[in-house]
Amino acid sequence: MTTVYCTEGGSRLDVFLADETELTRSHIKRLIETGKVFVGGSAAVKAGQAVKTGDEVSFDDASDDCEIVAENIALDVIYEDDDLAVVNKQRNLVVHPGAGNRTGTLVNALKYRYGDGLSSAYGAARAGIVHRLDKDTTGLIVVARNDFAHARLSAQFAERTVKKSYRAIADGNFKADSGTVENNIGRDKHNRLKMAVVPDGRHAVTRYSVLERFEKNCYCEFELLTGRTHQIRVHCAYLGHPVSCDALYGGSMKLGVSGQLLHSYSIAFSHPRDGRVMSFAADEPTDFKAALTRLRKSADAKENV
Fold it and tell me: What is the pTM of this model?
């Protein structure tokens, strides 16, 4: 059984699950029709029923029940205790197994490091996973090591008390040095791999500030006030300045990195056991820093001509 929590109500049940999982709406509909989707412990009646803020939505999907293999994949663990761990995730690492992708994920690596010492709230395929990062997004991710910690951490994400900042290199230059993007994000109608700004999507708010400007790029910091799938990537593309090297959302590949130049830079939250404030930051990875160095050298060269 896999469980996800609704942090903002109003969506149809099938739309909510499609946004929160890798399942298609047709597959979700079949699960609902066969009594395998539950809202607040009760079997869902129909795909179109509304999901409310705070709802616990569970589904029984056989694909989530297979055994997860422990794999010795190198991890940069920057903090760990009996309740949680904070990992600086590398590029090209999927967070959890999915259909056709059962090995080589962060969960497989966590299984090797911690064995059964991970939360089970989201099922075996998402053991320990409280929130997600895209495969090629690097940086900080929090892992729950027991169900008590998972529930407390999930509540903080739902209540938006977790503070997260990201850093990215974007194509072109934002007009303003800082600003806020606010609209609705949902699954792209033409490409299920993508999200998009759509009228019937879920409310999404991103703040940005420009740290450095270059001729054809800018280095920026982002604060997420909501946590939608691909939120920063979608909002940058919407503004006409996609994240560099983000092929899915139209980013230029001229900086030569195989994956979007987006990094989960800092995170702050309350410890689930004793409430003390935990705050962590992690520098950008080597390829990101190398791209920044090239941009700075190019800018210096032009100034000295």
Answer: 0.84
